[in-house]
Amino acid sequence: MQVEVIRSAHERGHFACRKTRELIEQEYFIPGLQSKVERFITNCVPCIMVNRKAGKKEGYLQALAERRGSSSSRSTLYRVYRVK
Predict the structure, then answer these.
(1) Spatial distance between the Cα atoms of 58 and 46, rounded to a whole number of angstroms
(2) What DSSP letter does each residue of 3-52 carry, written as one string?
(3) 72 vs 75: CA distance, rounded Å
(4) pLDDT(44) > 90
(5) For residue 34, how far is the Cα from the chain centroid?
(6) Which has the closest alpha carbon to 30: 4, 59, 61, 69?
C-alpha cells in the first residue's frame, strides 16, 4: 500500500523527492518515507527519460592500431568516436 501512496503522489506531476514527500505527509505517516520516495523516483522511467545526463555524450568505440613491439598480453586500447 505504501508504494501505491508514493506512486499516486509522485504521478500528480512527477515532482522531486521533497514535493512528493510533502504531499504524502499531509495525509499519511510512513516510516522511512524519505528513502522510499528517493528509491521510487530513482526508478521512475518517465523521470529518467526527461532528466538526461549532462556532460560528454556517449559514442562508439574504435580500436586503436597496435604499436610494433607491443606485447600480446596487453589489452586492446579504444578511443571514443562521437556521433555528430
Answers:
(1) 20
(2) HHHHHHHHTTTT--HHHHHHHHHTT---TTHHHHHHHHHHT-HHHHHHSP
(3) 8
(4) yes
(5) 18
(6) 4
Residue identified by cell 499531509 is 26
Q: How many residues does the chain have?
A: 84
End-to-end CA distance of the chain: 46
* Distance of alpha carbon 60 from alpha carbon 22, whole angstroms: 43
Q: What is the dihedral of CA 68, 73, 76, 77, to 10 degrees?
A: -80
Residue with cell 495525509: 27
Q: Which three cell numbers stand for residue 64?
A: 586503436
pTM: 0.59
Q: What is the pLDDT of residue 80?
A: 59
Give me the pLDDT at residue 4, please.
94
The amino acid occupying position 18 is R
Close Cβ partners of 47 (under 8 Å, ≥ 6 residues apart)? 14, 41
